[in-house]
Design a protein that fits this description.
single chain; about 260 residues; Rossmann fold; 2 domains
Length: about 260
């Protein structure tokens, strides 16, 4: 397997110790396991300018597409994503937030329905659950079928070593992550995932952003309550049929066409 690691810390210190333990655990399962590491501090991604090019004209029209699209392609082709962030000012780091801003078109045009990810967060104080939740919601809205989370407060002891209990938690979650990818089983989406899917679906159907509508039509996503091929019971789909119609009506009345 090939795992892509996106490191949102400007350094390789406390959070990276957790990553190294997860890497070792995954390597112990299969010595052929490979890792591709992207340290965002080294990519020098300029700040997102909010130009809306990715939404209105496609992701390749982003002024920073030469940096962003190679990262997006690696996310698409890897077997599993590992994304990390320490807690900075009760939130993700600016490096991670800037990447998410550049990839915001994945909210409108979700892609990773057959992919799984692991989130690693650490803090010396508070906010790890909030940051973990934010990253989980972001990846869920991008389509990620399953997200595994490792969130720690003060993840190492006073000598700089990982406590045994921390190691056990990392090992357990890393093994679950690996096995889930290995089995290839796709889980039924949560109701939260389906709600957001049908919000974007209604917006795409409305057609005020042509790039969105084109994407949803090309991927056969407009005619079903969730992405085709992902197991989803009729019990979950029925309320979404009603919700989708409500959203279509709401979006039709409240959308503003993009400027020519």
């Amino acid at each position: 397997m090939n795992f892509l690691i996106i490191n949102g810390s400007p350094r390789q210190k406390n959070t990276w110790k957790l990553v190294e333990r997860a890497k070792q655990t995954l390597k112990n399962i299969d010595e052929k396991t490979q890792f591709t590491e992207i340290n965002l501090i080294n990519t020098q991604i300029p700040a997102c300018t909010g130009c809306y090019n990715c939404f209105n004209h496609g992701e390749n029209t982003c002024p920073h597409a030469n940096i962003i699209q190679p990262i997006a392609e690696q996310m698409k082709t890897c077997d599993g994503l590992i994304i990390t962030s320490p807690v900075y000012a009760l939130n993700v780091t600016g490096l991670i937030k800037n990447l998410i801003d550049h990839l915001a078109y994945f909210y409108h045009r979700p892609y990773f329905f057959d992919k799984k990810a692991m989130i690693i967060v650490s803090t010396a104080g508070a906010g790890h659950k909030k940051v973990g939740k934010y990253l989980d919601e972001t990846l869920r809205n991008w389509g990620y079928n399953e997200r595994f989370k490792l969130m720690f407060t003060v993840s190492h002891d006073r000598h700089g070593y990982l406590p045994l209990n921390t190691k056990k938690k990392i090992d357990k979650e890393s093994i679950r992550f690996y096995n889930s990818i290995q089995k290839g089983t796709l889980k039924s989406p949560s109701m939260n995932a389906m709600v957001m899917y049908n919000v974007w679906r209604a917006m795409a159907k409305n057609g005020h952003i042509p790039a969105d509508k084109k994407y949803w039509i090309e991927n056969n996503m407009l005619d079903s309550e969730y992405y085709p091929g992902i197991p989803c019971s009729i019990i979950k789909k029925l309320p979404m049929k009603i919700f989708y119609k409500i959203m279509l009506n709401f979006v039709g009345k409240n959308s503003v066409k993009a400027e020519e």
